[in-house]
Each structure stands twice: as C-alpha cells, then as structure tokens.
Amino acid sequence: MTSSARDRSTVDFRPGNSGDSGDWLESLLGAVASATDFASAAGMLLVRFCAAAGATRGYVMLLDTSSRQLVPVANLGFEDREQPTSRTIDDLSDPFVVATLGMEVVACSHGPPRSGVSRTTSLVAIPFPQPRAPQAPRFLDEGSIERSLMSPCAIRPTNSGEIWRSSTEPAASSPFGVFVVEIDGRSDSVDLLATSARLAGPILSRVSAADAHSRRAEELAEQRAVLTSIVNSLPDPIVIIDGDRQIVVQNQRAEHLLSMRERDSDGRRRAVEINNLLLTSHLSKDGPSTEPRPAGESRELNMVDPDDGTDLLFEVLSQPLDENETATVSVLRDVTDLRRAAGELELQVQRVRLAEYEAKRESDRLNLILTNVADPILVTDDRSNIILMNRQAELLFGAATSNIGYATGDRSAAVRANDTKFTTFISDFSLSPEGARREDMELTRPGDEPTTIPMEVIAGKIVDRRGEPLAIVSVLHDLTEQAENERLYEELKNFSNELEARVRAATADLGEQNVRLQWQSRELEKANRLKSEFLASMSHELRTPINALIGYTALMLDRIYGDLNERQEEGLTRIRAAAQHLLALINDILDLAKIEAGRMPLHLEDTVLQEVMREASVQIDPLIKKKGLTYRWVAPENPLHMTTDRTKVKQIILNLLSNAVKFTHSGSITLSATIEGDFVRLDVTDTGIGIRKEDLAAIWDDFRQVDQSRTREFGGTGLGLSITRKLSGALGGRVTLTSEYGSGSTFTVFLPLRSEPHRERDG
After folding, report:
1. Which pTM was predicted?
2. CATH topology classification for 3-216
3. How many CB atoms lie within 10 A of CB 601?
4. Which residues are registered as beta bridge partners of 115?
5. CB within 8 Å of 95: residues ≥ 6 apart
6. What's the CATH class of domain 600-752?
7. Contact indicator for 505, 559 with CB cutoff of 8 Å
8. Dihedral sign, Cα of residue 257, residue 260, residue 264, residue 266
9. Which of 93, 112, 182, 634 could form a disulfide with 672, with the two C-beta atoms 3.0–4.6 Å apart?
C-alpha cells in the first residue's frame, strides 16, 4: 500500500505507557487459553480489549467460510437495534471485510455503513489471524485494499510498523475474524490491541476448533445413541463383520441369535452354536477365493430360534462399509412369516385356480348336459321370464334357428300356445309357498303337421339365504317316450331272460367240455411220463447194441480178425463213425428223457471247478485242433470248491464248448470262471456265426436248431442247449445268452456254490 493511502483520514492513536503491557498480554493469552468454550473466550477478549482501549462498547465478528460471511459472535454494550448484522466477505466496500481479509487495522471516524452505531462515533477494526487454513479466503493485496477502502475509513498505522506483513508471514496465517471497538476520543492502545489480536487469534482459533470438535463429538454421541436405539429396536438382526470374517458389532436381535449367556440352558447354547456355524458357513461362501457379489445382493440363510427351536429363514443383505471391503454390514431380514405367508398365498392361489378350473369344468359339464339331454330344460327368473333353455326346449318355446327350419323371430301358433301354458304354470308355482311341483301338461310340437305330446313338468325353486326365490328350474319329460321306453324295457327284459337261459345251457356244455379236457390233459401227461420212463428204462437196451457195434468195429480195425484191404478199412471206419454219432444222439435223447421223468439223480460232492474245466478242455481239445481254432480257459488261481454234481457240471461245460466249436469256423473260444456272491459264473465266448435276435428264444427248445436248413451242415439233434438249461436248473442255476449275428455268442451259466439235493420224481 502507498504512503498516500496510509495518510488519508488517519486518526492519530498513540500508545501510552505500556510498561505493564507484557504482563497484561500474558494474562490475556492465559485467560483465553483456559476458556472452556469459544463463546467465553470471545467474550473475555472483547471485555479486555474494550477495557484496554477505554471503550464501553464493541463486538467480535468471526469468518464463516461455509457461508462466506462475517458473523457476529460476541457483543458488549450494544442494544438490540444497534447490534451488527452478518455481511458477505465478497463486499469489498465494507471496511470490516477489508480489515479481515487485508489483515490491516482500519479506523472509521464516523462509523461504517450498516454498522448500527451513530455516525459521530469512531470505530477501530482490529483483525486477528488463525493458523493457515486450507478453506480460508486469500489475503487482499495492497491494490485491492486501496481500491476498496472508502472515506472516511483509513488504514491505521501502529508503532510496531508493518506488524502483519513483517512479523507475521501471510503464508503461515489465514484471516479468522475482526474485533471492533468504539472509541470516543484518542487512544494509544492500538499497538497493544493489534499485537494481542495477532497472538490471541491462533489461540482463539484452537478454542473454536476445540469447541466445534466438542460440539461435533456431542452430536456424534447423540447420533450414536439414537442410532444404537434405532438399530436395537429393529426386529432384524444386524451384524458388522471385519476383514477376518469376525463379528465386531451386532444389535440386540443378533445377540439373541448368536450370543450365549451364563444362565442359558444346554438347548439354547446348542442352538446358538448352530447359528454361529450356519453364519460362518454363509460368510465363507463370500471369501477371498470367490467372485465378489454385487453390493446389496441378498441371499437366504436358515437359522434356529434359541428359545423354542423353531426354524427361521433370513434374507441376508450385505453391503461393504468402504471401498476396500475391509468391513461389511449384513442385515438379516426375517422372511419366515413372509415365506410362510407366500406359501399360504400360493396355496390359496392354487386353490382358487383349482376352484376356477372345477367351476369351469362344472359349467362345461352343465352346458354339455343341457345341450345333450333329451328332455327340455328351462330356467326362469323371479318374474317368470325365461333366462336359459336347452336346444330341446327351444324346439317348443323359442324362436328356432335356421337349421331347424324357422326364421329367427318367427313364433308359430304352436310356440305361442306352449309359451302361454308354461308361463301360466310358472306364475302359479312362483306365487305358491311350495318348493317343488310336479304336473302333467299337454304341449304341441311345432312343425308342418303339429302333434300333441303329453308332458310331465318337474319344477324346483332356487332360493337365497333368506329363502327368497331366485330362479325356477323346470324339466319337461315326454310321457310318450316314456311309454315307448317301458314297452322297450319289457321287450329287453324278455330278451334278457331268454339270453340268460341260453347262457346257462352253454355254460353247462362248457363245463362238460372242461371236464373232458382235464381228463385228456391228465391222460396226455400220464402218457408223456410213461414215454419218458420208457426211454429212461430203455437206456441199457439201446446203448448196449451200439456199444457192441462200436467195439467189434474197433477190433476189426485193429486187425484182430485178420488183415483188411483199403476198401474194407474205409467201410469199417464209416461204420464206427456212424455208430458213435448214433450213440451221441441216443445219449442226448435218453438224458432228456431222464430229466423229464425225474430219473436223473444228483450226486453232490466236493468239487474243484478248475479240475472240471481242465478235464473238459482236454476232452474238447481234439475237435478244436481239428478246426484250427484258438482256445483258452481262465479261472481263479486259488482252488474254487463247490458242492455239486461233478459229472453234470462237466456235461454242461462240454455241451457249451461243443456248441461253440460246431458253430465257429475261425477265431477263438474262451472259457472263464468267476465268483459272484454265492454263485459261480461260467462264460463260454466264441467268434462264431452268432444268432439273430428273433431266434434267441427258440434255441432252448427241444429238438430245435435255429436254422433248420443248416441242420445237415452242423448235425446234431438240437438237444444240447435244452439239456444244458435243464441240468443247470436241476443244480439250482440258470443259463443266459448274449449274441450278435455274424460276430459270435456268449453263453453264461450261474451255478450255486452249494447245490441243494432233491428227491427223484415218483414213477
């Protein structure tokens, strides 16, 4: 600022004797520092400043950065009508604003505008700073001060010189407020007041900050108490969880579910433990290893009421408290009743829908009945007006549609006559107290040649809760048709009696035929049993000649009876082969006969399955080598003991192997044995011709080969597989087959580890 600006309208304030100013200043600053609140400190400073300046009135204005105003905070001596008002700091025509922002002592000889004091009074505005504040307005430069300061105001120099710009760096301070004191005459205390304001400003700023902090703390305490009361009064559990998934804050409802008390019972403690486990499990699903869920997403959580043990369903709504998600607040909204109500509502909706469906079905059924019933049906209201009728009633009372032969709206004389008779009947019935009525009525059937028909009218009233009639339902029954139906009924009854007599006669004939069939069945069964017994008893007589034939042929081939030429040897060889083939056929037939006759006993003994498999393999080996096939058998390493008929097990294996060799031209045959529970599983697998699916059932029939045309090619009687199945059944087992035509077959036999003995059939 220029010197001319400083000399303009200057009031000469010279300091007096200030020998005790140091003690006074120290006392002042100590008193300010010991003030309990900002209002006390500001009032104390105002009183001391007025006393030092010899003034009786003054006030303190504080800078409010939020509203950008100078706000009065303390007043001494001014009446209500004279008290200063707030003023904006953007108004640089105000000397108090210039003193505050420019950090200069401003003197006004006649009082500034809007000061509220007499213009004959001199005012001195002494600014006081605060430690550097980020939001405080910046200092005014000298140019802004010179342009803003108005007459009769001027900068008042002090004995300390450029006190604000030399002893105090503007960068270290910010504007805070201004002291305004009223001076009636000359004063020499301006230097002391300016120095005191410079030193007391930071202290007053700290007192203000402490006061604001205290007020904020009280407000926060009140808000916390209110919030705690609100949170505890909420029916929903609320928990705050830290980064380690531990509960740090919970309301009373959450404590009820998750916290134990010393007096709690064992049941309640277990319920609380279960709830904590369920909540921990729920929280673990949102751990660091999982994808974060959107804020505010809800999930369901099942818990237990510790008091009564009932199931509770909560909808968990979680929200992070900060950007780093180090803490999360979770609200557990009890939706148990809501879910129950939703279930009940859904059930009610289903019931309503079912009722609507049933009502529609009943309506459709009623319409179908009304449409298809043979009798005319009419419904009239309480005024005897027809409101509903079926098609049969329309023929008698209504305007017929075009497909009946009448034009719409045409009512013939017959229709009008019928309508009159029926209306009279309904009117009389509606006025009567009776609830139902039956009456005969003669109506006319409309047409080219109208005919009179006797009718029986059956009418009933539909009433409300008070008994008032709502409608009348009338059914008209054609008595002519009834008489015809009675006649037909009598005819039907006579026919039924005649038919019943015929049925009784036929039943008697069927009974006699059934008796004859039963006798024939017993005779056939007896004959079949006798046949089987005959074949079984003829075993020795049939086998002996053939064995003799084979034996003598072998002796002749061994040259026992002399030498043979080539043709003789060839003939004898063919005879022996034919005899052996015939013996095999007879053996199969006799075995089947013995089985059917119950003459094949079981000789149960301890049998090692591997030995039986080895014997069967050795016996079948020549046939396998003759056809150039590959053969192997597989069995468990340890001996597999069975209580069974060794001979019949060997025969089962040989039959299956012989069948496999017969129908396998190339490839391999495998015999395997495994244990499955209490059974031994035998599998014979070949790479032969296979069997078609439609022929799988036929192979088990007696004297049956699948392809009869190929019987000569493969030979045999067709009894091998049948005997195998029956022998397996006799031992308590079964045989199955899987086959693919052209690829091979697998026969599987299940034999018990311990076969049960059985008695032979009686002869």
Report:
1. 0.35
2. Beta-Lactamase (3.30.450)
3. 13
4. none
5. 106, 108, 112, 125, 149, 150, 153
6. alpha beta
7. no
8. positive
9. 634
